[in-house]
Write a structure and sequence with these properties.
It is a single chain. The longest helix is centred in the N-terminal third of the chain and has 19 residues. Strand 13 and strand 14 form a beta hairpin. The chain is α+β, with helices and mostly antiparallel strands and about 220 residues long. Helix content is about 20%, strand content about 40%. The protein has three helices and 15 strands.
Length: about 220
């Protein structure tokens, strides 16, 4: 019995060691991988192929089915839908070790979002943009800005065993063409953004304690 438990522990350690080497796809790498992609869904699959090499045992692909392992046991299967209108796809994008979660690149028609899967409980949440984890590992931030098909807001999400929920959001007075949010520290978000019509990007810091955040309704 001890031998089987030790073998299981060794296997689990091996899986997490493999997962720990994962890294988000860089802007340069994404441009290279998707240079000849037919559409967003195809781009997601090209990224998935590369990430599966870095993340063995985390997920497997069988045709339209993407099976993602949970921890300590179980799995969740995401099934793509091929259709001329309203087709849906899911592609392995990244493993976020700090919160033991898997991030999927999700497309519905021409719309692109991200699906975060918590491996400990199998809970899923759809996010408008690629999230960044706070130093406290209890919050995420997303920044989704563009001319069309974006929510155009900065949002903070709380992570718990009950799932991931949006708690704060903020919309700037001026329109932005794009933005990238990161955590300056546990209490402050750094946003690099480009206003519409601007020739160069700008930056701002937003504290979580700022009074002009809007609060999302409690779930």
């Amino acid at each position: 019995m001890f031998r089987s438990l030790r073998a299981g522990a060794t296997l689990a350690a091996g899986l997490f060691a493999a997962a720990a080497v994962a890294a988000p796809v860089s802007t340069e790498e994404l441009a290279t991988l998707c240079a000849n992609a037919e559409d967003s869904a195809h781009c997601g699959r090209l990224v998935e192929t590369e990430q599966m090499k870095r993340l063995p045992h985390l997920a497997t692909r069988d045709g339209l089915d993407l099976k993602v392992s949970l921890y300590p046991s179980g799995a969740v299967t995401f099934t793509d839908v091929e259709a001329p209108v309203g087709g849906r796809s899911h592609s392995l994008w990244d493993y976020i070790g700090a919160i033991n979660a898997v991030l999927l690149y999700t497309t519905v028609g021409d719309d692109v979002t991200f699906t975060l899967l918590q491996r400990a409980n199998g809970r899923k949440v759809e996010l408008p943009a690629e999230p960044k984890v706070a130093p406290d590992r209890q919050h995420l931030v997303t920044a989704d800005f563009c001319a069309t098909r974006c929510v155009n807001e900065l949002a903070v999400w709380r992570i718990s065993s009950d799932g991931v929920a949006r708690i704060l959001f903020w919309k700037p007075a001026e329109a932005w063409t794009d933005a990238v949010a990161t955590w300056k520290n546990a209490d402050t978000i750094r946003v690099d953004y480009t206003p519409v019509g601007a020739a160069a990007p700008k930056s701002l810091d937003r504290r979580l304690a700022a009074p002009d955040w809007s609060r999302a309704p409690a779930r």
